[in-house]
Amino acid sequence: MKDLQTEPTLSIRNLTVDIPTRHGILRPVDQVSYDIQPGEILGVVGESGAGKSMAGNAVIGLLNRPAHIAGGEIWLGGTRIDALKGDAMRRLRGKKIGMVFQDPLTSLNPLLQIGDQLVETMTAHLDISMSEARKRAIQALEEVGIPAAAARIDSYPHEFSGGMRQRVVIALALCAEPSLVIADEPTTALDVSVQAQIIALLKRLCRERGTAVMLITHDMGVIAETADRVAVMYAGRLAEIGPVRDVLTAPHHPYTRGLMGATPLASQGKARLHQIPGAMPRLDALPDGCAFHPRCDCVQGKCRQNPAPDLAADAGRSACWYPVGALV
Amino acid sequence: MLAYTIRRILQSLLVLLVVGLVAFSMFRFVGDPIDNLLGQERTDADIERLREVLGLNDPFIVQYGNYLIGAFQGNLGISYRQGRPVAEILLERAPATLELAFVSGIIAVVLGIALGVYTAIRRDGILANVIMSASLIGVSLPTFLIGILLIYFFSVYLDLLPSFGRGQVVRIGGWSTGFLTSSGLKALILPSITLALFQMTLIMRLVRAEMLEVLRQDYIRFARARGLNERAVNFRHALKNTLVPVVTIIGMQFGSIIAFAIITETVFQWPGLGLLFINAIQFVDIPVMAAYLMMISVMFVFINLIVDMLYFAIDPRLRVDRSGAH
Lengths: 328, 326
Fold this sequence. Notes:
The complex is a heterodimer.
Chain A: E1 10-21, E2 24-36, E3 41-45, H1 52-60, E4 68-76, E5 79-80, H2 86-92, E6 97-100, H3 104-107, H4 114-125, H5 130-143, H6 149-152, H7 162-174, E7 180-184, H8 192-209, E8 212-216, H9 220-226, E9 229-234, E10 237-243, H10 244-249, H11 254-261, H12 301-305
Helix pairs in contact in A: 4-5, 5-7, 7-8
Chain B: H1 2-27, H2 33-37, H3 44-54, H4 60-72, H5 86-121, H6 126-140, H7 143-157, E1 170-172, E2 175-177, H8 182-215, H9 218-225, H10 230-267, H11 273-283, H12 286-314
Antiparallel strand pairs in B: 1-2
């Protein structure tokens, strides 16, 4: 399944993130491995607290203390970056890895003109003059579809609507031409009508530049429309990963199947949605065996005793002892 | 913007009128100036005549009205004690207090912001924690005690700095300044530290709390995610946002530095307005007291006005939308 000719833009191997607390160590990301190829969009889905944002923050080196990478490797274009510290990591942020946050209303500094924020980002990473940076800033705003960019560059964030602000955020994330963009729920805070525009914009810009995208979301619709591959996370572990079409139409992991059943589809009319019983376990109270087994409707004895099988990056598709549609 | 300014000025005038009214109504309870003005050998007729001359028999509303009419004409009355125009006395005393307040204000703002930023950025550092603990002393020790401790240590024990007065002053026009002589500068040190200490710790703790709050914001995370260096994140992004609410408090603090100079001036026998006011209270010198209170309230209201205007300069969100936007 893995393309051996091209080197992946991002390669995560057995990534583990720990949060030491007074009552022991929490592990929000546990032995997660995946690759993202150049120009590929990998959707990362899961419930709140599944560890999807935490993995993204680990990649860009913005974990909030005391959370820290406790194991595994992160490779960016052939360079190992998980052990980089301070200034070396800072230089990668923005330059090699761009990030788009969830809420465009709070992502921009309200007291600085958007042009200043673009210029400071570019001059931090590229060896260009202020006037050149300003020219490029106008270009960047035009590319993300801000009308009259040359006039609006001196506007403050509050003078833009939410959707426009998210366009500015995307321009900021992409202005130093990173090879990877981590988009952490980029449309969750936006109107439904604007969501599609923003997703289309992100997709178009990344296609044009060959930028790899880690698209973190809990919106299955966005995944279906945008991503090439999808990684499903549950309680810090990777439950299933594979091409979007395969995973969405024929999920192997019971959790993925549950998620799909819980997504409303226009074609199904008013049929009752399937619910996954219970809630995701808290990190300090993970059950023995497979973390999903208390909620799984095809649970068997093995699931209660043995942790779910490891999902190697290039091996199977789901971390389940009894994948749906496989044997049983 | 203009309409807003005018509205604010009108509000300010109203506040001043009310403050004056309250102050005047309270003067009826501080004692009878006649006791001090006339000596032991007074007759009831003397008392009655003086009361009539000074207008003390009028209801206080009338007294207040007369006072306001005079004040608008620049006539603040004659001091009962010194027998000179109050305006003249105030002008004579003002430089001492203003110089003291100015130096204290600079100390408080500069050190307060610097230490606040430092303790916020190095939140877990040892030095930052030491500073925070030490600042509790500044917040909780009363000003007069700090002044007395400083006098004891630097004047009595080390014999380095003068314990009272302004030292030598130089007169420039109507202004007497202590900045130009070494004894004047030396005399400034202890009182200005005493006066600044409380304000400084207050500003420092406020800046620290605001800055920690700002550093948690998404745009700070986003600035980091864009690869800006720590200096740009802390000073360009965080500090500016921190200062928006802090500016108000600093403005207000400058008013209270002048107002609370009373205590410091008493401890150091600093010949300023505060000492004048204390002496006026002891003598029930109503014209001086009234003028002092009105002056302080004018100052507070004026500073308030400036601070509100400053908001517009700092925070673009408050400005009226300029043409071209939207």
